[in-house]
Amino acid sequence: MRVFIAEKPELGRAIADAIGGGQKDGGCIRCGSDxxxxxxxxxxxxxxxxxxxxxxxxxxxxxxxxxxxxxxxKPIKDKNDQIKLIKRLxxxxxxVVNAGDVDEQGQLLIDELLDYIGNTKPVKRILISDMNKxxxxxxxxxxxxxxxxxxxxxxxxAQAVADQHYGYNLTRAYTLAGRAAGADHVLSxxxxxxxILGLVVRRDRAHEGHASHVYYDLGATFAGEGGEFAARxxxxxxxxxxxxxxxxxxxxxxxxxxxxxxxxANVFNAKTEDKQTPPPLPYNxxxxxxxxxxxxxxxPDKTLKTTQALRERHRLITYNRSDCEYLSDEQHADAPGVLxxxxxxxxxxxxxAQAADPTLKSRAYNSAxxxxxxxxxxxxxxxxxxxxxxxxxxxxxxxxxQFIAQHWPPEQYRQTTLDxxxxxxxxxxxxxxxxxLGWKRxxxxxxxxxxxxxxxxxxxxxxxxxxxxxxxxxTCQGATVAEKKTQPPKRYTMAALLKDLARVAKYxxxxxxxxxxxxxxxxxxxxxxxxxxxxxxxxxxxxLMKRGFLEEKGKKVQSTGLGRExxxxxxxxxxAPDMTALWHEQQEQIRQGAMTLEQFxxxxxxxxxxxxxxxxxxxxxIEAASGPECPECGEGVLRxxxxxxxxxxxCNRYPECxxxxxxxxxxxxxxxxxxxxxAQVSDIPCPECGExxxxxxxxxxxxxxxxCSGFPKCAARFADRRGxxxxxxxxxxxxx
Length: 736
Description:
Blueprint: E1 2-6, H1 9-19, E2 22-25, E3 28-31, E4 35-39, E5 45-47, H2 50-53, E6 73-75, H3 80-92, E7 95-99, H4 104-116, E8 123-125, H5 133-140, E9 144-145, H6 150-180, H7 193-208, E10 214-224, E11 227-234, H8 250-260, E12 264-277, H9 285-296, H10 300-312, H11 335-345, H12 350-355, H13 390-405, E13 411-422, E14 425-436, H14 450-453, E15 473-485, E16 492-493, H15 494-501, H16 511-520, H17 534-546, E17 550-553, E18 556-559, H18 561-569, H19 572-575, H20 578-591, H21 597-618, E19 638-643, E20 646-651, E21 660-664, E22 667-668, E23 680-685, E24 692-697, E25 704-708, E26 717-721, E27 724-725, H22 728-735
Parallel strand pairs: 1-4, 1-7, 7-8
Antiparallel strand pairs: 2-3, 3-4, 5-6, 8-9, 10-11, 10-15, 11-14, 12-13, 12-15, 13-14, 16-18, 17-18, 19-20, 20-21, 21-22, 23-24, 24-25, 25-26, 26-27
């Protein structure tokens, strides 16, 4: 008897369907007398904690650090029954088949379970990246020996053990050192979470410390028999420019403008091409979280949990934690069924689904690019949009629209590029004329969607310039020099942060580390030297916010004072993504058998021990963690917490002290405005500094205006419009 152990129930059902003759029997499916298919629910086991081996380890004490404990597993709560069932089935089997996902976590998940239950039966490996019946049947005919993947298992286990050892020890060390200095925050450290904090801190400081400089934008208008058009200056080798090729000398720009005005211009290149834009690829979790944040303000964790419900409760979408944006070639045959299901489930998309052409095969259908999972798409199951929650309906429609787009034609356009020379100076214009919107008709309302509308820098004009030909006589009608200022890097939005976590390698200056990060993701489409995984990033960002290291102000994700202080205490090795890269290099050696798990973990333990000795010797100073003194008991400190109605501040001695204060711009409002005061403190944050704005009556009693409650440190002022501050211009300045 063969026992197949799948990573998830839906994969188990797909295997049983491919084998045929399946009968459900509790937590397994029996296929005749020879095959039984059972499954896990993700990880059934977790690594043991220090206190599982030594009860005294529950007490946090610096003298006990660093901790070291055996590498063992224990059942996750509520998973014992399934573990017992799998152990019984394996005991009856003559052969076991590991049906974990086609990645190192899938290998780890099944192999750690087989080790835990003491399996001695021979084990095969089945590799399934698509639950299409034909693909599963093909995989059943190509089973491999599970021993081939032992290095992959050991590599994944090594990372899990090292993450635990690193996080447990350094979190305790920094927290205990912080307490000795008067702080009471848990100062949490992690291989992924701390570099995420570092990414945000560095962006905040780059934004705040940006030294703006002036540059000059030179444009000119050219005219001929067919009309006129504008083009932009292309600096020559002798032009004084900054690192982005922008002219920085006003006198030079003015000289060029004067030299070309009224002069004949020569078109030395005129090229018109027919081009097309393919639809955006179907969603992976990262891009779905980014779009849900941009459009609906959903946190990454909210998107993950909502899609989990769409998949498990409603059966309306495929695997929701996928990091892949592609579909297998075989899935193209399912397109009519998926489009029908969308039309039945979401009537608002009915016309778009019916207008789609299921015979069209977009670039998304490419089996070579499918990894452990395919992209997130709707299933062929129909549902009732009215029975979904508002959040579920929003995400289903996003996913469905992206799938429909795969079966609409590409956007068609004609692009004309003109290169001109006038008085020895070069100019260029690129114009795009859309001839058919194609799939973009589905996205007309997404005004801020860069993937759909572009960032505005590729094309200078939407006019038709095909009338201009090479060597056509033109005249420069006039030139303008516009003074502009460089803008600081924008603060992170949640969508931008999520996307950067998939490509942090671009911020790494050490070329070796950068190459290692990129090599780590070379087989993952959509990941380009990232840290974390689409399935874990949301929980990590959420944890950084709960711990007070990050916060959201408006739509911006920013580091707090505590986050910055803690960041500055840590060594660069902790706040940069380098550790992920260096660990990956050693994990590759484990996969190849050149290093053992024990050697890798010993190396990490040695590094951790050195850090702990440094912390013991130097201690830490972290003022932001102490917080303002509780105004009621005088013994505790106020901590910012999140309640059902937003943030508030409460005493850390709760329940002994139940003091609370409202949150105003990320700080506790210690006193309330006097009743009848002309100044009204609002919940609206100042776009310049984040403090709450105050509505004041104008001198003479006629009208109102708004000012920052942080005055005189912040002197921001805004006009009043129907009881609200006019922030539009301020927002442009702040976001620019």
